[in-house]
Task: inverse folding
């Protein structure tokens, strides 16, 4: 993994733990704001500010994450033409989502024109939804193939088990016939020996 993009993706992924923690703060503050909005407006305002601050922080932590989709296309574009197409569509949607999410963050903190925020938000959300659709299709196909492979494996095990039982039955029958022939031969030999003795 000496590729520059690979190293950058690994470096960016190290912030996922912090992002998840801040995400927890964001949704806790959102729930508290919703719960106390009618009874304690002042407290609700504080939690709303916390929600906004954590949301902006998360956008900062996700800087450069659009490279993850790009790197996935470079490293694992799919094993078949169908999967390659799904990979391009799904990862393209994810890249659009993260890239315009970065621009949305810059618009909300005032680096870019604040009027662009609404448009950036729409494009980002559209890219996210677009990517999710094809990721879900990918997962459903993989699940279907997994179920089919499992069924084939079960059938193969049953066939092998049946063949093993038939082979065992054949061995037992051969052993039984061989034992019967041996016993009959012994009886004949004993009878002849007795007749000769008499």
Result:
């Amino acid at each position: 993994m000496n590729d520059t993009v690979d190293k950058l993706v690994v470096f960016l992924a190290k912030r996922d733990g912090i992002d998840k923690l801040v995400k927890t703060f964001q949704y806790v503050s959102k729930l508290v704001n919703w719960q106390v909005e009618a009874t304690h407006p002042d407290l609700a305002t504080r939690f709303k500010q916390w929600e906004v601050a954590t949301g902006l922080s998360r956008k900062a932590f996700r800087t450069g994450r659009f490279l993850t989709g790009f790197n996935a296309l470079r490293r694992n574009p799919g094993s078949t033409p169908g999967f390659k197409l799904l990979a391009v569509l799904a990862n393209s949607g994810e890249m659009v989502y993260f890239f315009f999410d970065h621009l949305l963050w810059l618009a909300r903190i005032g680096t870019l024109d604040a009027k662009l925020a609404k448009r950036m938000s729409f494009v980002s959300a559209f890219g996210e939804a677009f990517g999710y659709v094809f990721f879900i299709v990918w997962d459903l196909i993989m699940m279907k193939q997994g179920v089919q492979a499992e069924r084939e494996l079960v059938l193969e095990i049953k066939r092998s088990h049946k063949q093993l039982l038939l082979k065992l039955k054949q061995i037992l029958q051969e052993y039984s016939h061989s034992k019967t022939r041996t016993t009959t031969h012994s009886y004949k030999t004993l009878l002849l020996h007795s007749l000769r003795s008499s």
